[in-house]
Specification:
216 residues; single chain; eight-stranded antiparallel β-barrel; mainly beta; two-stranded antiparallel ribbon
Length: 216
């Protein structure tokens, strides 16, 4: 994948590679979490194949960018936080949405999200995560004021809270939540924070399966 100078990129990892006889820091890069129709067409080279194209990962070649809307790429799921499902064999996957880096709002039903990020697998959506949305819409304006982000878009999006209006008001509660769950056969350690989205509660976080090692 070739990108124009000044393009927004996501860093997936930093390595040390030999370039012209010297070892320098290089980075794995993607276009980040962009709209599905664009993401599915992108092709990325492996680090082994792109050696001739490696660019040193330095301040001279790359500039750190702080997003004006820090909620971009965060995966919002409906509800107050992680919970064990009715079968007690995993955590509940609820409907969710996220704002892409190129200004699209992508919504996922619970069944659609369960196919790509079940049981709190992801806190943020990455460039290699090509998830087909249940519905999406182009965003016209994003405004941030304190802990409140307002997202305006052209037409109402089915599945979103107050779905008859074409705007989201997202208010962040910075309080951290933590819980340990014990579904059948394993342990889940979860952390999250909550948001009010048009008055409805959503959460953003991640749950990690804890491996238990027993002595023989």
């Amino acid at each position: 994948m070739l990108k124009k100078k000044g393009s927004l990129l996501e860093v997936t990892g930093v390595n040390r590679n030999e370039i012209n006889g010297k070892y320098v820091s290089t980075a794995g890069l993607t276009s980040g979490a962009v709209h599905y129709n664009r993401a599915k067409k992108l092709k990325y080279m492996t680090m082994d194949n792109m050696h001739p194209l490696l660019v040193p990962f330095t301040k001279a070649n790359f500039k750190l960018v702080n997003l004006k809307a820090p909620i971009r790429t965060l995966l919002f799921q409906s509800g107050t936080g992680f919970k064990v499902n009715a079968k007690k064999d995993g955590l509940v996957t609820t409907p969710g949405f996220y704002l892409t880096l190129d200004n699209y709002l992508q919504y996922y039903s619970a069944s659609a999200l369960a196919k790509v990020a079940p049981s709190g697998l992801s806190k943020t959506v990455r460039g290699m995560s090509v998830w087909k949305p249940t519905a999406s819409v182009k965003v016209s304006k994003v405004t941030v004021k304190g802990r409140t982000t307002t997202i305006d878009y052209a037409k109402p999006l089915k599945g979103m809270p107050n779905q008859k209006i074409s705007s989201l008001k997202i208010v962040h509660n910075p309080k951290q939540h933590h819980a340990t769950f014990f579904p059948d056969g394993y342990t889940e350690d979860a952390t999250w924070t909550t948001y009010k989205v048009n008055g409805k509660t959503y959460y953003v976080g991640q749950s990690i399966e804890v491996k238990d090692y027993l002595d023989d």
